[in-house]
Specification:
The chain is mainly alpha-helical. Helices cover about 70% and strands about 0% of the residues. The protein has 2 domains: about 25-150, Alpha Horseshoe (Leucine-rich Repeat Variant); about 170-280.
Length: about 280
């Protein structure tokens, strides 16, 4: 009975993939020797739509939640067993399933290593960046953790997309922008002084003028860390240009809130020793 059940499960999962493999080849691609094969086959069958209707509507979410643990158990050499299931879950109609994967994609990247991550996870990651805010927050919260695992060239490609995080489905979702500011502080270590000045500086200035004070306070810390990073860089012109822009944009702002922002940024730079005092003066 078990053999016939597994045969049914395999055939069923074969129908749900767009693979050019025959059913027999598809079955062999999911064979491994780490855990009992029957257990893995049962797990892989959780993405079958008919099971969601007859067993549990949340079954795909449970499958997504457990996937990093299954991948860790099987090891990266057996990722081929899980790849189709992961891609099926990543395109699931329920945003809760995609959100679950978005929150754990950085963990999966550590398990799989840089080659498999670049080939199989980066396309999924790019899809999540364009998803609903409920899904995007998952990749945003661990943006630094994921990007630090990529090669420098691949990592630089995301500089152009960071600006998109300022746009949300709901403008009142200020926690999204606060999280972006937190992540940008961590991302300063991953990029060159020129990249920070060209791409991260405009986002930081935009966040400093946010309507919500909680976002602004984190952004003051972001700007002070930016000043520190650019000061330590070999090219000194970037930090001078940044400070001149701070004066021009905030110190000489016709609104009192802009001038107040300048004072708070100065306070943070001073407290965190981001600059030598003579240069601060």
């Amino acid at each position: 009975n078990m053999d016939s059940t597994l045969h049914y499960i395999h055939n069923d999962s074969d129908l749900s993939t767009n693979s050019s493999f025959s059913p027999e080849e598809e079955r062999k691609s999911k064979v491994q020797d780490v855990v009992p094969q029957a257990l893995l086959d049962q797990y892989l069958s959780m993405t079958d739509p008919s099971r969601a209707q007859t067993v549990d509507t949340e079954i795909a979410k449970h499958c997504a939640y457990s996937l990093p643990g299954v991948a860790l158990t099987l090891g990266r050499q057996n990722w081929h067993c899980l790849k189709d299931t992961y891609e099926t879950l990543a395109s699931d109609m329920q945003w809760k399933v995609r959100r679950t994967l978005a929150f754990s994609i950085h963990e999966l990247a550590v398990i799989l290593g840089d080659q498999l991550t670049a080939g199989d996870l980066v396309p999924v990651f790019n899809g999540f960046l364009k998803d609903l805010d409920e899904v995007r927050i998952g990749v945003l919260k661990h943006l630094h953790d994921f990007l630090k695992l990529l090669h420098l060239d691949k990592r630089r490609e995301y500089l152009y997309q960071l600006q998109e995080f300022l746009v949300t489905d709901n403008s009142r979702n200020w926690r999204f922008r606060a999280e972006l500011a937190e992540q940008l502080i961590l991302l300063l270590d991953l990029y060159s002084a020129r990249d920070i000045y060209d791409y991260l500086r405009p986002i930081a200035f935009s966040l400093c003028a946010d309507k919500v004070s909680s976002v602004r306070w984190i952004s003051y810390k972001l700007v002070s860390e930016m000043v520190k990073k650019l000061h330590m860089a070999s090219t000194s012109t970037f930090v001078v240009d940044l400070m001149n822009e701070l004066v021009e944009k905030f110190c000489r702002c016709h609104k009192w809130s802009g001038r107040q922002t300048f004072v708070f940024i100065c306070q943070t730079i001073s407290e965190d020793d981001c600059l030598p005092m003579d240069q601060f003066a």
